[in-house]
Amino acid sequence: PPLKGQVDIKGRLSGVLTEPRFSGQVQVDGGRIAGFGLGDSVQATFTGDRKSIRFDSLRVDLDDGRAEGSAELSLSPLRLAFQAQPQSISLARVLHEVGLSGSWADLTASGTLDLQGPLSPVDLRGQLTLDVDDFSVQDRANGSPGAQTFLAIERARVQSDWGIATDAVRFTDFRIDVGNTLAVGSARIDYSD
């Protein structure tokens, strides 16, 4: 897939040719992989060998928000385990980064999430707990001239099992608490052609 961005890597290599080990730091600014954005900047410390790469400290900056966490990428078979703590992340900006511009909804989220599973084909699953602020739905894309908000929720808590597959993002058995109101259900956001 096509790659884009400014990358700065500092690292060390050790071991022997048949069993190399490596460690270091990486910073990516304006990174994109196959059209998917990686945020404004990504910083990580990593260690690895022929079997896996571990990101013990991972930080993604996105507008005024950020997410911190850790991840492990197993190389054979190709598998990802990921944990993150987003802080003040905008949903509309995340959707824009993954190629879904023109969102009619936005919110700011903080909390915890994790995903794990195979990457070929993609079948990542996990749980999330998010405290949501300033959820709004407009009558047209956010930022469009004349856009009017027709639904606004100041504060909510969202808990769900969730997953990312090759064709959709799924939220199963979600629970949304808004004051004295509780909503439960499941949702699927398709992005295949």
Helices and strands, with pairings:
Blueprint: E1 3-16, E2 19-33, E3 36-37, E4 41-49, E5 52-62, E6 65-75, E7 78-87, E8 89-90, H1 91-97, E9 105-118, E10 123-138, E11 149-165, E12 168-178, E13 181-190
Notes on the protein architecture:
The chain has one helix at 91-97, and strands spanning 3-16, 19-33, 36-37, 41-49, 52-62, 65-75, 78-87, 89-90, 105-118, 123-138, 149-165, 168-178, 181-190. By secondary structure, it is mainly β. Strands 1, 2, 3, 4, 5, 6, 7, 8, 9, 10, 11, 12 and 13 form a 13-stranded antiparallel β-sheet that branches.
Short description:
This protein is about 5% helix and about 75% strand. The protein is mainly beta and about 190 residues long.
Helix-strand makeup class:
mainly beta
Sequence stretches where pLDDT stays below 50 over 5 or more residues: none
Described by strand count, sense and barrel closure, the largest sheet is:
13 strands, antiparallel
Give the overall shape: globular
How widely separated are the two ends? 18 Å
Topology, number of strands: 13
Helix content bin: under 10%
Continuous helix count: 1
Order of helices and strands: EEEEEEEEHEEEEE
β-strand amount: over 45%
Radius of gyration (CA) equals 18 Å
**pLDDT average, as an integer?**
92
